[in-house]
């Protein structure tokens, strides 16, 4: 488990390095029974956009970040890793970030238990934060519950080709946006005394999470497997209905009815989404969240460098692989 070895405030770049070090330490020093699995995951870490977001939100007007931000950032990344492990088991995914998924290497039973252990690690790491009254409002289990409910709603709507746009956005509000919201709120509570400002950070995290997932939805139809570092066009194969497909089925009801009968192959779906403009439409929905996010950043009581950093995170989420990669 991560230990409380950080005792001084750090600048942003040093904080990012410290999070990577502490995350590796947590994964590589796990108990022997699970260490092979967690060590494998240490090689599949992504760009840590959630942890980086938390650190950016935690930066004070002197450009420094409290030690608790590092602990909470590691906790967020461990939570994210846990959800990915479980997602891959459910989807029977072969690859994750260019490497074999945990269940393909160690078996599904071992992977599920390893994911559970990562959840425990995340909660233990978060509990190491110095007790403060403000932390009482940070309900990490509630965010975890929202993530789980989002995944359950997605599973309930598997191959539901009548899924509405509203229904889909409700799914990703929990499935993806909740963890981003948690990261932004956790960071803000370390540097903001005003509840109104903390609420702005919370909304910003929620919107960026929505943008991030919508960009990921587009990648499934726009990118090659080498670019995405995971199988593409896999959502439809696994019955996962995303916004490009929701929009396409709304425009092409005959295709939707054929899909219900299992008469449509993924290659035809790809062409139908292209003809219907499913990806541009999804981008337009994402742009609405982007514009709202820009407005929020302008309203933050933050120094220019911090606003610039938050804008860079927003742009990376919006641009997908062009900016940061998805994961």
Question: Which homologous superfamily in CATH is the superfamily of the largest domain?
Answer: Farnesyl Diphosphate Synthase
Report the sheet with the most strands, covering strand number, pairing sense and barrel closure.
2 strands, antiparallel
Percent helix, as a range, is over 70%
Count of distinct structural domains: 2
Task: Tell me the strand order in the biggest sheet.
Answer: 1-2
DSSP summary, beta strand count: 4
What average pLDDT do the residues reach?
A: 88
Helix/sheet category: mainly alpha
CATH topology type of the largest domain: Farnesyl Diphosphate Synthase
- As residue ranges, the low-confidence spans are 1-6, 321-327
Q: Tally the helices: what do you get?
A: 17
Taking all Cα atoms into account, the compactness measure Rg is 20 Å
What is the 3D form? globular
How far do the termini sit from each other?
23 Å
* Proportion of residues in β-strands: under 5%
